[in-house]
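Homework help board

Subject: predicted structure for assignment chain

Our instructor gave us this sequence and asked us to write out the predicted structure in token form, then describe one feature. I got the tokens but I'm not sure how to describe them. Can anyone check?
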Amino acid sequence: MTLRVLADSVLSNGAVTADVLAYIPSPPQGVWHIGPFPLRAYALCIILGIVVAIWWGERRWQERGGQKGAVLDVAMFAVPFGLVGGRLYHVATDWQKYFGADGHPIDALKIYQGGLGIWGAVFLGGIGAWIGCRVYRIPLPAFGDAIAPPILLAQAIGRFGNYFNQELYGRKTEVPWGLEIYLRFDDQGKLDMMNGVSTGVVDKVVQPTFLYELIWNLLIVVLLVLIDKRFRIGHGRLFALYVAGYCLGRFVVELLRDDEATKIAGIRINSFTSALVFLAAVAYFIFATKGRETADQLQPSTAARPWPWQIGALRAAGAESESESASKAAAAAEAVSPKHNAGKKEVASAADEAETDKADAAAQTEDDSDNAASSDGESDAESPDSAKSDNSGNESDTAGDNSAEPATSDAEQGKVGISKKDG
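My token output:
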């Protein structure tokens, strides 16, 4: 059956009733056969998610200063462990499907039929990553921070596999975005919901919880990237945020499901797991080391790394690594720019010479001022004698003038006497 946007209008008792629906159709099948080989959508989604996680995780690791190829190297340990852990958790929590009265134990090995518990995948996958990090001598917490958003994106991609398998859905519903579940049959006409092909008959309409979780995962991926850029979180705390964010969404999704599951006190076991893991992740985020590792701390170490439970030794090693990184950075800065430093020295020397010349000029100016002042003092001391001599000269000149005046008068008087005689 295809997506119905408007239902058929039916005339009833002269009235027109319209049933408006927009249900999401399930795929008619989840397996395609290419000759003798089955091509399963679920497996393709899992593989695509792993490839995307490794590719993006490699980029994030290198952006933080890690060596190229480290994520792929560690993934060789983490991916197999994660697949085994996911399957073990699923079989352990749904054991009645495989070991119950109507179960087939061999089906527990058929991972391609779906059924991977994310908790087991993260737990055993983390152990595999830890082994890989110890082999390549890189810090596991920093590695976890780099791959946290890629892992959650891979989980979102994997949810499409649940869509093709018609699994991980919720209770029956009448919401417009309800998911149609089809009956599938094999070539012999037997009911085979996993490997069969739909005849278009709708079995039920349910809550698309796979879609809710997919959207939630994408939102947490975006949030983790933004937080990482804004606050530069490290030491495994971003990975803890990923775990806490996923657990919160998964807890709500579990409340909408009603398919078969192991329960404790009437509560689905996945709800208990989500709550406990959420609390553990929040505690780690609060009490773990703050800040982010330097690029030098992400390089393969030649020294033996402390075990994860040796908290004091880990912190001591981190502090020692940070001090060594700071010393190396300072030495590198000095070595990279010798010409710049030499130029700085020349400028400083020139400035010192200029200051010295300026000081000498100021001292010379002070000496000239002192000499000028002493010359003025000597001139002032000689000026009274000069004034004296000038005054004495003036006085002699005045005396001479006075003595000449009487002589002239006598001569004139003589001339007057002669003129009288002549008359």
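Reply (TA_rk): Your tokens look well-formed. For the description, you could write something like this. The chain has four domains: 1-35+172-206, 39-170+209-305, 307-336, 341-373. That's the kind of observation they're looking for.
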